[in-house]
Amino acid sequence: MGALCDFCAEQRSMVYCRSDAASLCLSCDRNVHSANALSRRHSRTLLCDRCFSQPSIVRCIEENVSLCHNCDWNGHRDSASASEHKRQTINCYSGCPSAAELSRIWSFVREFPSEDDSNCEQGMGLMSINENWASTCWGEPGSNSNQDVIMNQMDTMDKFNPWIGSYSASSANALQNRAQQADPMQSTAPKLCGSGTKEVEIRKSDFNEDFQVDDVDLTLEDYEELFGGSHNYSGQLFDDAGIDSFFDLKETSGANSNCQGDIPEESSAGCIKSRQQACSNGADPLPSNPGSKADPSASFPARQAHSSLSLSFSGLTGESSAGDYPEMSSMLLMGEPPWYPTGHECSSFPAANRDSAVMRYKEKKKTRKFDKKIRYASRKARADVRRRVKGRFVKAGEAYDYDPLCQTRSY
DNA sequence: GCGGCATGCGACACCACATCTCGGG
DNA sequence: TGCCCGAGATGTGGTGTCGCATGCC
What positions does the domain B box-type occupy (predicted)? Predict the structure, then answer.
């Protein structure tokens, strides 16, 4: 039995709307997202069958369950047999499709009740089933945002798999190995990376494209700051205090760590906090002014030189975009590929645990600071359709310059 | 090195009103 | 104890404004 619908609290929730941060039953999903043109653009996907709290990104054919990235990763990473499970990416959708349409795009789900579509104002006219989107397609494809990076990665995953729109753990591992083996800053030679089921040739140019190196936000140095100081503390990452306690530890011990030798005198937590502020800026992920506060690499020249793995993960981070792309922030976290730097002197940290810790840390940080939480969806819906003058709400009936129900704005 | 100016960016106020909360009957 | 009612508080999003930080001359 899954979670109840966040809206009616009666029906079992089936889909997850990231824009509303809500799990909804199909009926409420259609009602809520047929309210206006804006809400119709919300991208939704199936709810994870395991945690019932995150949007699912893949369908495990073997287990016949839809899984979010976290549950997928946790459920398939360890067992050799489980890792070979065939998984199919789950498309998201917008608009207010009928049950039949949903059944068409999610053919594996047999639970869609047939409902009358009459309550949808414009029905399928505005519906856009994003067949070509990967499971991490929150937002509009083609926009210059972090999700493109995710899309690239998902596309990359598909390349490793003979059947379109799906991937297996082996291919994910291949991608991971690809990230681990390729040194984008130096080597350009092709490398072979065994996937377990298929060998693929790794071209560094592809790798670089996927990584969006220039899009600086959270670099691997952050990871080193977070987890690289002394991995003897790894166990403490998994207690309730999570990464926060780790910060405390690092503040007291980081100076003596091999990995912290080049760190400026300010505390690691302080560094990260300042970076978060800079990253949360997000309005201009590519600051035109090098050396500005939004350029973390410029703030840490010593550490930049310290690590040859100063790749940017900016496109994958939640904090970089949560403010600007709230509807996709969580998805970014969940969709983050399970790679991480290896070969570093401090990389004795178990890889899987480390990835899990990173994910948990980001999730916690997101909910703590960067995700605007909509407490009352009804009020949001009301505000979405309320008319404004220069951004201010106006009385009903008064002249207005912004009609949210109209696609084109007049100023 | 210092001051003035320009620029960029974050924080915040503003607006209406449906909804929520809470105390009293 | 539970219900009802009314007053007050709350929250919602787009835009403009202000102040601070930074860079340049």
Answer: 1-47
Q: What is the mean pLDDT of residues A78-102?
A: 72
Measure, in angstroms, how far nucleotide B21 C1' is from residue A23 CA. Answer: 25
* pLDDT tens track for A313-338: 333 333 333 333 333 333 333 333 33
Give the pLDDT confidence score for residue A309 in this predicted structure.
Answer: 29
- Among A13-17, A100-104, A364-368, which stretch is predicted with the lowest mean pLDDT? A364-368
A291 CB contact with strand C at below 7 Å: yes
The arithmetic mean of pLDDT across residues A166-178, rounded, is: 36
Locate A283 and state its tokens: 């309005």
Nucleotides of B under 7 A from a protein CB: 8-11, 13-20
* Predicted local distance difference test score (pLDDT) of residue A377: 83
CB A289 under 7 Å to nucleic chain C: yes
- The alpha carbon of residue A95 and the mean position of all alpha carbons in its chain are separated, in whole angstroms, by 21
**Six token digits for residue A61:** 């054919």
Give the nucleotide with minimal C1' distance to the Cα of A280: B10
Radius of gyration over every alpha carbon of chain A, rounded to an integer in angstroms: 22
Mean pLDDT of A193-202: 31
Taking a C-beta distance cutoff of 8 angstroms, is the pair A102, A56 a contact? no
| Those residues with Cβ within 8 angstroms of residue A335's Cβ, 6 or more apart along the chain or in another chain | A57, A69, A135, A136, A150, A153, A154, A316
